[in-house]
Structure formats: structure tokens, C-alpha cells
Amino acid sequence: MEIIDMSTKRKLKKMVSVLFILGCFFIGNTKCKGADLEYISQETANYAVQERGYDLPVDEVVKEEAIEDCKNVMNQMKAIYQKADKGTSSNVVVSETVMEEMQEVLKEKNVPVITSAPYSNMANYSKMEEFLFRAEQDLPGDIVLYRINRDGGIERLKFNYDGTDMYLLAAKAVWGMNDNPSIVYVSYTRIEEWKYTEKGWFGYTLCVPKYPEVSEAVDGSSMIRIKPLSDECREVSKRCVYWLGYQGNNLLCSDWDRSDMEGLDYNGLYEYLYRMKYGERYEFSGNSSGIPAEEFENLIMEFLPITAEQIKKWAVFDSEHQTYDWEQFGCFNYSFGTSLPEVVEIRDSGEGNNVLVVDAVCDTFICNDAVITSELTVKFNDDKSFKYMGNKILNNGTKEIPKYQYRIKRKN
Length: 412
Description:
Layout: H1 7-23, H2 34-52, H3 60-83, H4 96-107, E1 113-115, H5 125-136, E2 141-148, E3 154-161, E4 166-175, E5 181-196, E6 201-206, E7 221-225, H6 231-241, E8 256-257, H7 266-278, E9 291-292, H8 293-303, H9 308-314, E10 317-318, E11 323-324, E12 340-350, E13 353-361, E14 373-380, E15 386-393
Parallel strand pairs: 1-2
Antiparallel strand pairs: 2-3, 3-4, 4-5, 5-6, 6-7, 8-15, 9-11, 10-11, 12-13, 13-14, 14-15
Helix pairs in contact: 1-2, 3-4, 7-8
């Protein structure tokens, strides 16, 4: 997964241009006049903006084309949006089914289209892949990718490669008054680094403001899956690993099996298993000292091969009140924690167990399609329930991630 090295090309291109400008200072030992100096000043300013790479000026014709295209695409999906269940909240969120219906409409345009749903497969992905393959060979070209967002609006992402640098012209449209399309922004940015991985992920980092212009780091990284996952991997990813993630619990980012389960963060894990079972976030009332023992233990035992006695021993348990301690997830956010777990392979390991090969896909700062890879053993039951039986981090991957911080400090 080697990053395409564009910095050398850009520096050479800039050097040639600067030498060309400076060359006009002395032509036949005659200095430039005022008009020439004004030209040089403007060109120098343009190079400064170009080198910065963000908030680049957008040609009015190109901008208008992007706006009109966004409006036309939105109007093609308008009937689907108007019929969709949008809930009662002021922040509209449409279902995955609705986004997929919209995707089918845009698919007919024979252009790449994805949705914001987890593990969304890209329609017409070969178009996007062809563009990236050509760019890897330094062949100029461009491609427009549409992304359907959870609010029913779209992003129009036009990637352009000029033989040296890649640029992104991004436009976003939402539904405004009377369900008419409204343009949120149109931006033009140079892509600082990009790569297309063997697994089929397109990772890129946009040029963004840096210190001292800003006091905090700005992340311009994104990851887009181009090659589709198999339907089985998509289904199992949603069902078994999506709600776990790598933040707030350590089931997927530690080594454990039935003979060694002491290290799992049961108090942190509870809320994620709750959401998997009930389809909604766990809300702690705060009117008691913790989560009632029976409620806590039954949920944990449903998903793990463990007894109530073992849970009491290894979790943070209040024997006086017969409750398990609970704390809201705090500020332990880090780049690895926001990674997306993705099942890329499923193997039958016998005894009714399956091994899921899970990659941690990180789109923040580092753009890595496998920060760690683990083998998660799962036992599927006939009633569609399942149990996690163990997890093994491959290739000594635990050294590549931050040390896990338990939700609640364990008592000795």
C-alpha cells in the first residue's frame, strides 16, 4: 500500500515555473517594467495559493456545472425522498433502504454511486477503479462520484488528475424549503497524498490549514471502498462487528479465548451488546448505583461463553448493592478508536464455529485499510443468535495500537 509520491513532481513543476517567472527580470540585461512586475506579483500570489492547496479558486463555469448537476440529480430522487419516512426529528435521517433506492436511480447514469450506510457497495465501481488505475500510471483524467447522505441529500465528488497532482471539486446539496434542492457549498482542494490499496480502498488526504494558521490539527483524510465486499461479508460485518468497533471496549482489539477472558472490559462492553440486542442506545437512568446484576449478567452471557460467577470476579461489581458499575464513555478518543471493523473473510473452523477475519479500517490521519487484523471466532446458532468465542490479533498487531484504557478503573 505505497503512497503515490507526488511531492517530487510538484516541486519540479514549481521550480520550472519560478525559473520562468524570474527569467523575465533579466532579458538581454534589461530589467522588467512595471507591468511585468505586476504580472510577476500576481503569478507569485497564484503559486502561493496553489502551494497551500485548499480554498482554491473555482472557475465560474465549472462551479455552475457542478451546482446544476447536483440540482438535477436531487430532482431525480425527489419522489423517493418525499415518500420516505423521515421521523419526527428536525434532523432528517432516511433509512438504508431509501438510500439504496436513490442509489438505484443514479446507477442508471452509469456513474459511480455510494451511500453513507456502513459497508455500502459502490455501484459502477469499475469506472472509479479505471480512473485510479490510470492515475497510478500518471495518465490525466477525471471522474465524478456521487455519495447519498443520511439526510437524503448528496455530495458530488469530482476527482481530477492532471498527470502530477490530484484535485477534488466537492459540492454538497440538501433538501431545503418545499423539498427543493439547496447547495451547501462548492469547494476545490488539492489532494496531498493518495493511494489505492490491493483490498480496494481509495484513501486520500486533502490539503488543510496547518499550524500556525490553526491551533489544532485538522484532519483532511478520507477512505472510500471501491471494490465491493461480498454480500456475506457485508451481512456479517453489520451483524457481528459494526456496533462493537474499537472504542470503549476491547473485544476486537485484544487477544482472548475461553481459557483467558479476564482481560475483557465487561463494564465497557455492556452498552455495545445492549445496542446489538435491542437496536437502540443504552440509557442509564442514574437513579441507582449501577446496572442490576441479573440484567448485566444475562446480556453478557448471551454473547460470551462465561458464567455469572466469572463476570462478578472480572468485572467491576458492587456486591453490597448487587450492581455493576457504570460510567459514560469519556474522552478516550484516539485515531485507532474510530476505525471501522470490516469482515473480509469467513472460514468454517469446525465444531459449529466460524472464524471471521476482521480488518480495522482507519480513515483519520493515517488512511490505513488494516491498522490491525484479527481472527474473531463466532458460534452461530440456528435461531440466528451467536456467541463470541475468542479473538486473536495477527502479525503482532497489538504493538501498532495504543494501550487500551478501561472504562472504569479495576479494583485490586
